[in-house]
Amino acid sequence: MRRAPGWLGLVVLAGVAFASAGADYQTQWPLAVPDGNAGMYRVSLDAGVYATARSPWLDDVDIVDARGQPVAAQLFAPERPGAAAPERVPAPWFALPAATVGAPADLALAVERAGDGSVLRVQAQASAATAAAPVATGWLVDASAVEASIAALVVDWTGARDPFEAAYRIEGSDDLREWRVLQPRVVLLDLARGGQRLRQPRVPVEASARYLRLVPLTGAEGLVLTRVEAELAVGSAPSPAPQWRELDAQPSGGTARTEFVYLLDGRFPVDHVDLALPGSGTGEWTLYSRESSDAAWVRRAGPWVAYSIGRDQRSPPQRLAAAVRDRHWRLVAADTQAAAPVLRLGWHPEMLVFVAGDAPPYRLVAGSARTSRAGSPVAQSLAAIRTTRGEDWQPPRATLGPPAPLAGEAALRPARDWRAWLLWSLLVAGALLVAWFSASLLRTPRT
User: Fold this and answer.
1) Which domain of life is it from (predicted)?
2) What is the rounded distance in angstroms from the CA atom of residue 97 to the CA atom of residue 199?
């Protein structure tokens, strides 16, 4: 009886030790972090990671420390994890005389432009009526290289008095001759009181124009611009070009068909589709996909007309409504095709954001049928950091090293549920212990 509790304790300890075993993944990539004290990092997933992952939700991709223990990590959309910061591009600017406060501008502008419309040099001279009064400084912003609607201008300046508040009228033009009012009054300010500071360097535009003019209204004396950036409207920033996987149709005994089946070699987040037709041709197509070979087909795009005429005339890629990680794809043609087209699936790399622990270096691991990434509130932590560092703050970017095998193909075989076996073993052992104890009591003579 005195030995039984000790034996039972060994069984429990063995179960605890087994439960604390490390994750089992197929492949690992070392991570290089730029700043060891940042605390939070982001890493862009490459084609090798997607080719290794097996989970349709990509939860078999994780970050582990030097001890093999996972750290807090969360998957984010491509390019910008969490709340996306607005896209900003630098814009050239030129100083020019402006009207006196409260009077309209009357300027003679001599502008030298390049062949693409960009401004090279500006010479401005005020009329006699305007020059007779004190003149403030206006600014001409060359936005001819911005191929999107401009949400705002973000500027920086020197030479202004302290405290500073200046009002401007924003005008727009496409030819430097005809101007229209875009914003009747915007304000730049820099105020300080009691150790606190309020600075407003952003002025709204909310329009599309090749050239912008800031006409001073009040308080602009002495201000000299040192930086101007055009903030693009939400949805106007040009999207990065997708990366492509080119797939050949699966072999078939027929020579002329209307359906072609393809197999994708990874869990890529496919959001674009394109066809490479053999030679010149045209046709109407519908695209389907499914998760497994026994699942139902789901229509993803089309019907749309894809064509290839000559060397340069090709139909544009089709954008899917949402990213799809399916492995099986099917093209259906409206008419019989003599040859199968090459299916091009486009994708954008996602970001895995993780919180560094106290045991560097770190590794990215992927490919497992045994374990998965645990849920972590990384998004909430990222939002809290941005309240102090600014909405456009991003974690430093970590980079992937060369891949190396970890558990190999063994990680892709489902592990036995040892926890269930252990639980049943403990229950059976407890029942045997109770039976043995009861039998002992029955054999003991009554006193």
Assistant:
1) Bacteria
2) 25
